[in-house]
Amino acid sequence: MELSNNISVSNEDDFFLIAGPCAIESEEQVLKTARELKDITDRHDIDLIFKSSFDKANRSSISSYRGPGMERGLEILQRVKDEYDLPVITDFHVPEQAEPAADVVDALQVPAFLSRQTDMLTAAGETGLPINVKKGQFLAADGMDNVVNKIESTGNERVMLCERGAMFGYNNLVADMRNLDIMKGLDKPVVFDTTHSVQRPGAQGDSSGGDRRFAPTLARAALGVGVAGIFAEVHPDPSSAKSDAATQLPLDDFESLLKQWKAIDKAVKHGK
Q1: Which residue, 56, 93, 179, 203, shows the most beta carbons closer than 10 Å to its own?
Q2: d(CA 219, CA 15)
Q3: Nearest Cα to Cα of residue 188 among 175, 179, 197, 176
Q4: What are the C-alpha distances in Å from 56 to residues 30, 198, 206, 254?
Q5: What tens digit of pLDDT does each residue of 85-133 get?
Q6: What's the distance, CA 183 to chain centroid?
Q7: HSE (CB half, 13 Å, CA atoms) of 82?
Q8: Are the C-beta atoms of residues 38 and 76 closer than 8 Å to each other?
Q9: What is the pLDDT of residue 207?
Q10: What kind and span of H or E run contains 19?
Q11: Which residues, listed in sequence order, are joined to residue 53 by a DSSP beta bridge?
Q12: Residues 6+ apart with CB under 8 A from 245
């Protein structure tokens, strides 16, 4: 499947990266992160799609930070495209946001909690853009065929399926690596979301917890299975992040992780 900027994604090609801070906190934060991620991925010849959210509509608390809103957020993402020649992806939360977001972004993301919402999926499909659908924490992997069918009903077959863990009791997730092979069986590129998979949803009462220590471990396991891409939220200072502070990966440490991930991907797909 072709994205943009000559990026081709499939479960057989070298892995690509979706990365950036969870939420847009400021223009300065986004541009700094985008610039450094571009430098890192250019050094290691890894295709990058920059990700950040203009709105986080599914925060635990009414008082949690959500983002700058769609208009300002899309302006900032447009600057990322213009200044660094990077494709960008963002999530949306109501069907009416799909079309205006598509005027700026190169791909759209459907949040996990909304992955069964028919109007969300068809609105995404009607943009004609590549769609990355987060598998709901409540869905079986083989149930994603219905999600694919809803998007493809619009004539858009550019669908990626993203694993991000499944609910394991209350306030915990487990990443079942079998799901990656099951979703690959649907003949779509599969992405593994390594940072959301280590969340503990709602574990801190008014916010989600988690443990970023295990995100690199899960990424290595997913690349061992052979996936099209890795999704990782990366922040210059995760402890101060306004969302997902427990799970975002530090920007300063990210290059060493990517070197490991590329080596595993190469060994699995090229046998060396």
Answers
A1: 179
A2: 11
A3: 179
A4: 16, 18, 14, 24
A5: 999 999 999 999 999 999 999 999 999 999 999 999 999 999 999 999 9
A6: 16
A7: 7
A8: no
A9: 56
A10: strand 16-20
A11: 23
A12: 238, 239
